[in-house]
């Protein structure tokens, strides 16, 4: 891996980290266990490693954003997670933040194009 | 296509989970392993129903490889742990650098003073050099230990720990230290100052050159005593004398070159270091004098009995004094070199940015 690729990879992971938490919280508005959650996220275009997702679920539960319970399904005991009331509140705030950041970045990216269009109109 | 039996698959899965368990926090081992097992079994089942056959050995190996090394998988369940946290680390690193520098300086001074009293020769120098890394490592270890303990206490019992400005209390911007002198800041050396330095250097050189003909200019009334007394200076002083003259000529020449090139305002740091290093040569020469014979008897055959003991004491005292002077100059030189390297590194980093 070249230095540039390594820098890109680090920045990509940094960028993804927060997004993954948001996606997991959003997806857990409905109850899931680890494997089906991972499958659902992948089907929606967000691949996430098992070794990242399962510890993340534990961490969010420890922080009180998720609640879990062991239940039998298909003759197998599984741990099901869903958003806690605190988690719902935090998710709403995070989504506001996400939308605000997204709009800001769009405006920043659009600014040079808008300036170029204004310059063209003036000429 | 060779497929694995269900038993073989389960055995490998058990072995994998057993390996993960070893690195998990004790209290949560069972819970985490049960959840991992359920997820992995579901995943295997899903894959097998897609393929409509059991997984082959290779596919199962790939599946486990994709899960990650047991140690890596377990590490994700651990909370981030560090000896000294990011809040305290800058202060720790600052104190560590200062302590290492002072430990090195003190170690050098003590070695220069104590070693000549207890040992002699090259072995003493080698012993002193070998002792230094041990002392530096001990210093670093103690400082790390103290800071680790402080950080541990600070994070677990914040209310009982002293407040650190900027970390766990409000800080006052007016308490920031004053601006440090940047390179080439302050007052530059004036043209007059440079001329005076050269004139004084030439006068000093002239004074040195006439000393052999008029020793009282250096020793005052002691010159008469030396002439009348039983002692005389050893020939080694002549070599020392001419080395001293050479060093002075070099320093005057360097100042003249600076004047000619118009660079007298900001003398080169490297040339200052070279000049100081060259100044060590005469002292080092005196230190290597065989048997430390700086003063001799005019008539050893007749005076040895009366003045032999005094002569030894004088020579020993002179050697000790040269050791101390040499140690001080070496420490100054090491300090200057360190400062120069640090400045060069900062300049390099600044231009790289």
List the helices and strands and how they pair.
The complex is a heterodimer of chains A (123) and B (353).
Chain A: H1 3-27, E1 32-33, H2 34-43, H3 50-62, E2 66-73, E3 76-83, H4 85-122
Chain B: H1 6-22, H2 29-51, H3 57-67, H4 70-75, H5 89-118, H6 122-156, H7 191-210, H8 216-219, H9 222-228, E1 231-233, H10 236-261, H11 269-287, E2 295-297, H12 300-352
Antiparallel strand pairs in B: 1-2
Could you describe the 3D structure shown?
The complex is a heterodimer of chains A (123) and B (353). With 123 residues, chain A is of the alpha+beta class. Chain A has one domain (3-122): Winged helix-like DNA-binding domain superfamily/Winged helix DNA-binding domain (Arc Repressor Mutant, subunit A). Chain A has helices at residues 3-27, 34-43, 50-62, 85-122, and strands spanning 32-33, 66-73, 76-83. The longest helix of chain A has 38 residues, at 85-122. The termini of chain A are far apart. The relative contact order of chain A is 0.11. The model of chain A has no long low-confidence stretch (mean pLDDT 90). Helices cover 71% and strands 2% of the residues of chain B. In chain B, α1 packs antiparallel against α2 (29-51), α5 (89-118) packs antiparallel against α6 (122-156) and α11 (269-287) runs antiparallel to α12 (300-352). At the A-B interface, α2, α3 and β3 of A face α2 of B.
